[in-house]
Amino acid sequence: MRKILAVDDDAKVLKVFESALGQKGYQVFVTTDPTKVAEILNQHDIALVMLDIHMPKKSGFEIFKELKKKYQKLPMLFITAYPKSFSMRSDDMVDMWTKDFADGNTDIVYKPFNVDTLYEKVAGLIGEPDEQVS
Amino acid sequence: MTLTPVNRAEVYRQVRVILVRHLIDLGRLTVLISLDSLQIKGSMERLPGVKAALTPDIVTVIFMEMRRIPGIRRVQTKLDNWLQDDGVGAWRPITAESQKRLIPGEPKAPQIIEIADTGPAESTD
After folding, report:
1. A85 to chain B, minimum CA–CA distance in Å?
2. Which secondary-structure segment (H or E) carries A21?
3. Chain B residues touching residue A107 (CB < 8 angstroms)
4. Which of A51, A92, A96, B53 is packed most tightly, with the most Cβ within 10 A?
5. Facing A133 at nearest CB: one of B5, B16, B49
6. Model confidence pLDDT, tens digit, residues B68-121
């Protein structure tokens, strides 16, 4: 069973992820605390990390960059209501997009989203819940 | 050639590589693979803040690159903002004018780009 870690400061959003993706057969771990991400990744064989961007303790982009250093091929999915978060007017974003996104292991979902879109994006990154991909 | 789960994951990844390289906003599109067919849905747009406009030529190149992905024989599109008149011509952005020319009540059919079968598909065994 493929395992997903979802990180968002909004517990209600995490419940939606747990329910929607859990029903499809994925095992979903959730946390509102970005500082717990490393610990969860150490304890479980996580296939995908879903990241909110705007969080008070640490942004999704900071977590993304940290994880990219240690887990280069780990698929990650950004979930945000703010498409302008990916504005290429920022040098940091240009750098991140052209280097870290270039391997094709990252995707984006904009809120509000429907559950089918979420599922398509997740399956596009890590396959169906029980598929042998790697 | 039927795509295996490993092939499918790789095809999805290669599609994202192409879109990222062309500075396309991933959040505006979804990709589905069915057998040897790729379906692209949504809006094909550049990321916010990208100065270079997305032109018909670049859209053509993007889909040409997708057609070259091993295992893909057909690219089907359901785009909100780009149209290919007869399925083989140049792409053009959908404007208010082009919307008016569509027959009222007629649903927009998905655009299907067929690929000529030029030989045996690449083996994945």
Report:
1. 9
2. helix A11-24
3. 16, 26
4. A51
5. B5
6. 999 999 999 999 999 987 777 789 999 766 655 554 554 455 555 544 444 444
- Cα angle B108, B112, B117 (rounded to 5 degrees) comes to 170
Mean of all residue pLDDT scores within chain B:
81
Is the C-alpha dihedral spanning B35, B110, B23, A76 positive or negative? negative
Contact A1, A27 (CB under 8 A): yes
pTM of the model: 0.86
Q: Is the dihedral of CA B76, B82, B87, B89 positive or negative?
A: negative
The partner residue sitting opposite A88, judged by closest CB among B14, B21, B23, is B23
Which of chain A's residues have a Cβ under 8 Å away from the Cβ of B54?
none
Edge-to-edge, what's the strand order for the sheet holding B74-79?
Answer: B29-34, B37-42, B74-79, B111-114
Q: What is the pLDDT of residues A86-127, one digit of tens each?
A: 999 999 999 999 999 999 999 999 999 999 999 999 999 999
pLDDT at B101: 57
- CA A76, chain centre distance (Å): 4
- Please tell me the distance from the alpha carbon of residue A50 to that of residue A108, in angstroms, as a whole number: 9
Tokens 């094709």 locate to A104
DSSP secondary structure of A53-104: S--SSS-HHHHHHHHHHH-TT--EEEEES-GGGG-TTSHHHHHIIIIISTTS
CA B104 vs. chain centroid, Å, equals 25
Reference B110, options B81, B87, B92, B88; nearest CA is B87
pLDDT digits (tens, 9 = 90+) for A45-89: 999 999 999 999 999 999 999 999 999 999 999 999 999 999 999
> How many Å lie between the alpha carbon of A116 and the closest alpha carbon of chain B?
10
